[in-house]
Automatic annotation (TrEMBL):
InterPro entries linked: Acyl_CoA_acyltransferase, GNAT_dom, N-acetyltransferase
Name used for this protein in its record: GNAT family N-acetyltransferase
Top-level taxon of the source organism: Bacteria
Molecular function per GO: acyltransferase activity, transferring groups other than amino-acyl groups
SUPFAM superfamilies reported for this sequence: Acyl-CoA N-acyltransferases (Nat)
Positions of the N-acetyltransferase domain: 13-170
PANTHER family assigned to the protein according to its UniProt record, in alphabetical order: GNAT FAMILY, PUTATIVE (AFU_ORTHOLOGUE AFUA_3G00765)-RELATED-RELATED, N-ACETYLTRANSFERASE DOMAIN-CONTAINING PROTEIN
């Protein structure tokens, strides 16, 4: 079993880099139409394809951060992912999250997102982080608002009509 050190924890969650053991969780997450609806991503065809994605994921090495596995602190169960991603086309850092449907409505995405923002500002010394959501993804928009992010602009993005939220280090309160 591959292990990665914990990056940080919140009240209920542990966040760490992906390991090949997360492949089943990622496969299940990307298989759910409700989760994929606003992402523009295609589901993995197999657990092996998800594992190949993890093995080829270089964001940690390239930038020193990335999307991280979100696990239950109680039982180490895979809940989804949350994390920061450098978007070269916009030269910005994007907060993203995806949570398995069975955990929706429990505040997991908000809790993980606040943890990622805190980590980004305090540990990684970032100055600004953005979040983007399809205009119809009301749950994701609520998560961004609950983290303290504020609406910055409407834009066209790869997922279609998109709202961009932002937060700066100065405005963030953990």
């Amino acid at each position: 079993m591959a292990t990665a050190p914990m990056l940080f924890e919140t009240n209920r969650l542990v966040l760490r880099e992906f390991t090949p053991d997360d492949a089943k969780g990622l496969f299940d997450l990307n298989l759910a139409p409700e989760v994929q609806k606003f992402t523009g991503d295609l589901p993995f065809n197999s657990v092996d394809e998800a594992r190949s994605f993890i093995n080829a994921y270089t964001h940690y090495q390239d930038y020193g951060f990335g999307r991280w596995a979100v696990l239950s602190k109680d039982n180490n169960e895979f809940i989804g992912w949350c994390g920061l991603k450098y978007i070269p086309e916009y030269n910005d850092i994007d907060l993203g999250y995806r949570i398995l449907k069975k955990f929706w409505g429990q505040g997991m995405a908000t809790e993980a997102s606040k943890g990622c923002l805190k980590y980004g500002f305090q540990q990684l010394k970032m100055n600004k982080i953005v979040g983007r959501s399809h205009v119809e993804n009301l749950a994701s928009i609520k998560v961004m608002a609950k983290t303290g992010m504020w609406f910055e602009k409407a834009m066209d993005y790869d997922i279609g009509p998109t709202l961009q939220y932002t937060i700066s280090k100065e405005k963030f309160t953990s």
